[in-house]
């Protein structure tokens, strides 16, 4: 019995100790799960390493957006191409040799008493730097104006002259008569003249003879004065004068020299024509070597 009581006392003491251990606070903080801590540390380390590599490879700079004022300043800095050409101070006609087309323009300017600069290039002279811009076909004459513009169109040159200097007029009397004669000359006379002069075939001579006969017919039957359209010098006389003087350059040409000769003499006596056209002997020598 004493032994039993002794055993019971020992068990009670043991149970009391166990109870105290269970209720007493832990001596050290609980240990966090090691796996999760390790994994989070690895992820943070990898991210930091990648960011460091990107920063090392390229330094990112913030994008600078220009303000409206800055854009305007840059636009103001853009300069126009420099035009270093020296502009002429008056209408300037540039031609080569004894050009009858250039003489037409010169006669028109002389008739209106308008100052014209004339430059006649020799065969060795180079074309102006702007020549092919002004004359895409490479033909002379060309006109350069003080405003920097050009023209290789003879009709436009004379039309501009008439517009800028209407008096004295190149279209006296009936404008329709002048216009009708110009159309005929441009369609029939000038092409025939050019072909007869440079190709000189029988067919071309006959075409030119027919065109000249029509001019003679107009002088005999429709003109009341010494000029083609009457008493007043006109645009028709301007364009005809340089070419009628060159009819003698075409061999074998059969024309009525009576009426036509009288008309040509009157043209050569007119001051604006006499001061421009070259002596016929000089023209013959030029065409002989052309």
Automatic annotation (TrEMBL):
Residue ranges annotated for the GST C-terminal domain, each copy included: 171-290
Domain GST N-terminal, residue spans: 89-169
GO CC term (a single one): cytoplasm
Source superkingdom: Eukaryota
SUPFAM superfamilies in UniProt: GST C-terminal domain-like (SSF47616), Thioredoxin-like (SSF52833)
PANTHER family from the UniProt entry: GLUTATHIONE S-TRANSFERASE OMEGA, PTHR43968
Name the UniProt record assigns to this protein: Glutathione S-transferase
Organism of this sequence: Rhizoclosmatium globosum
């Amino acid at each position: 019995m004493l032994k039993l009581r002794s055993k019971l006392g020992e068990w009670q003491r043991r149970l009391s100790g166990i109870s105290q251990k269970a209720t007493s606070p832990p001596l050290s903080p609980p240990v966090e799960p090691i796996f999760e801590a390790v994994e989070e540390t690895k992820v943070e380390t990898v991210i930091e390493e990648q960011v460091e590599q990107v920063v090392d490879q390229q330094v990112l700079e913030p994008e600078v957006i220009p303000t409206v004022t800055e854009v305007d300043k840059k636009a103001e800095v853009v300069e126009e191409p420099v035009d270093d050409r020296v502009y002429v101070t008056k209408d300037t006609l540039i031609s080569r040799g004894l050009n009858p087309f250039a003489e037409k323009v010169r006669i028109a300017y002389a008739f209106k008493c308008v100052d014209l600069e004339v430059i006649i290039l020799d065969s060795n002279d180079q074309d102006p730097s702007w020549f092919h811009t002004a004359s895409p076909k490479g033909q002379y004459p060309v006109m350069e104006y003080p405003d920097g513009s050009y023209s290789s169109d003879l009709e436009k040159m004379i039309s501009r002259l008439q517009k800028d200097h209407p008096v004295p007029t190149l279209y006296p009397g009936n404008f329709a008569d002048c216009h009708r004669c110009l159309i005929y000359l441009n369609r029939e006379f000038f092409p025939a003249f050019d072909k007869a002069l440079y190709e000189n075939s029988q067919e071309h001579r006959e075409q030119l003879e027919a065109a000249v006969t029509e001019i003679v017919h107009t002088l005999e039957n429709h003109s009341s004065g010494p000029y083609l359209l009457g008493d007043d010098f006109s645009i028709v006389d301007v364009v005809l004068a340089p070419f009628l003087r060159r009819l003698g350059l075409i061999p074998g040409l059969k024309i009525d020299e009576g009426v036509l000769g009288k008309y040509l003499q009157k043209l050569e006596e007119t001051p604006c024509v006499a001061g421009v056209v070259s002596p016929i002997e000089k023209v013959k020598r030029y065409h002989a070597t052309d």
